[in-house]
């Protein structure tokens, strides 16, 4: 094969232009031609991307020479890159997966691809050839995990080897074609100053995390709940044993003694499911100092609250809610939905004695993620959970203000008044 590919400068494909139907057809035919040649030569499953570059480039030259004589397209290098994405990567998504500035990738069918950068969603000029092309990429993503997606199993969750989390839904549930959502894993360390700009608030949260306060982080999708959980975890003493429970492992705890557990969905026969509640019950037998539950969403809430009330102080979790008050109501509702037979007041008492703080996070219209409230949970009075807002975000000045001082109980737990 030719050595000329050593000198190729592979362009950044973010500059790709919108493809017309004729170019998509050309790519499909070229892809089939190259695949057949690779299989005939026994190279399809033997080489990594870098090794295949030269072969794919030469096969593409042969294809165009047969089709158009000596005329080659000006974007030959880009075509070869896209072919390599199809052969060893994830097609049109590969460039977006490799882009460090992209946080989320959302596929709403073959011709509608959106990404989130710095909290803002934008449409990108990439596209798939058709629904089958999207489905082929989805199946390639989930194949290493033994998952399947078809009409009998039209939804699937999985985690890529790099930690990115994916969710796919296909027809008949997805009316307009296969849909894919990718939440990318950020491997870089998290700088607390990017999230906490207020020094006094930083001091409070640092003290609460170190002092083993039980903390619930509330917010909407993409508001920064997991990011804040990662930030707070860096203040956990390295001598403490921490067990994490997640649906898809995203936490990046810096504590040296961490046991990571991940749920498992049922197989194609509906067997083998391991839920968060299963893992939480098992975690209690693993001698944890703290338990970190990635998200509270069902029956595991009851076990988590009981763990917080029985010696596993410093435990943390996240929950989808629009305000601290909504978060508490959701907790109460999820406890009652487990079949826990008790009075409403006792459920409130369980929540109030388990939690010390609720931290509300939000994503602003500008894309910036901020902590909007820090609320202390006190006790139950007049059949209601009493709370006290310690900090509140001021949208007009984009600053935080002290609303009230913490209670004597929390001040004693954290070792004194805030600085």
TrEMBL record:
Q: Name one Pfam family in it.
A: T2SSE
Q: Which residues form the Bacterial type II secretion system protein E domain?
A: 89-363
**What InterPro entries does this protein map onto?**
P-loop_NTPase, T2SS/T4SS_dom, T4SS_GSP_E_ATPase
What CDD domains does the record point to? Answer: VirB11-like_ATPase (cd01130)
Q: Which family does it belong to?
A: Belongs to the GSP E family.
**PANTHER family documented for this protein:** TWITCHING MOTILITY PROTEIN PILT, TYPE II_IV SECRETION SYSTEM ATPASE
What this protein is called in its record is: CpaF family protein
State the organism named in the record: Photobacterium atrarenae
């Amino acid at each position: 094969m030719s050595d000329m590919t050593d000198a190729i400068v592979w362009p950044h494909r973010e500059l790709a232009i919108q493809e017309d139907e004729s170019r998509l057809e050309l790519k499909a035919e070229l892809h089939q031609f190259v695949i057949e040649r690779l299989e005939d030569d026994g190279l399809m499953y033997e080489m990594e991307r870098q090794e295949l570059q030269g072969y794919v480039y030469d096969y593409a030259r042969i294809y165009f020479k047969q089709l158009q004589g000596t005329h080659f397209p000006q974007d030959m290098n880009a075509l070869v890159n896209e072919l390599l994405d199809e052969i060893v990567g994830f097609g049109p998504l590969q460039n977006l997966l490799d882009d460090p500035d992209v946080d989320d990738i959302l596929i709403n069918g073959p011709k509608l691809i959106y990404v989130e950068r710095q909290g803002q969603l934008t449409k990108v000029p990439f596209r798939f050839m058709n629904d089958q092309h999207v489905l082929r990429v989805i199946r390639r993503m989930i194949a290493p995990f033994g998952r399947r997606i078809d009409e009998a199993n039209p939804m699937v969750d999985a985690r890529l080897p790099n930690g990115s989390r994916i969710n796919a839904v296909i027809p008949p549930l997805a009316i307009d074609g296969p849909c894919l959502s990718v939440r990318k894993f950020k491997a870089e360390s998290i700088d607390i100053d990017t999230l906490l700009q207020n020094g006094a608030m930083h001091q409070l949260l640092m003290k609460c995390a170190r002092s083993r306060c039980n903390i619930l982080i509330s917010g909407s999708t993409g508001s920064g709940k997991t990011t804040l959980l990662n930030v707070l975890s860096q203040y956990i003493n390295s001598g403490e044993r921490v067990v994490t429970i997640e649906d898809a492992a995203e936490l990046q705890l810096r504590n040296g003694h961490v046991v990571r557990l991940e749920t498992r969905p049922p197989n194609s026969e509906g067997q083998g499911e391991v839920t968060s509640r299963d893992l939480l019950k098992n975690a209690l037998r693993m001698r944890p100092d703290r338990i970190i539950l990635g998200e509270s969403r069902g029956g595991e809430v009851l076990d988590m609250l009981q763990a917080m009330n029985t010696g596993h102080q410093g435990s943390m979790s996240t929950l989808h809610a629009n305000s601290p008050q909504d978060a508490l109501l959701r907790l109460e509702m999820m406890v009652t939905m487990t079949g826990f037979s008790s009075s409403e007041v006792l459920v409130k008492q369980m929540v109030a004695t388990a939690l010390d703080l609720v931290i509300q996070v939000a994503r602003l219209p500008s894309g910036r993620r901020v902590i909007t409230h820090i609320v202390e949970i006190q006790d139950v009075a007049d059949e209601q959970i009493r709370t006290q807002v310690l900090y509140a975000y001021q949208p007009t000045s984009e600053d935080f203000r002290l609303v009230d001082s913490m209670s004597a109980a929390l001040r004693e737990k954290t070792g004194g008044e805030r600085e």
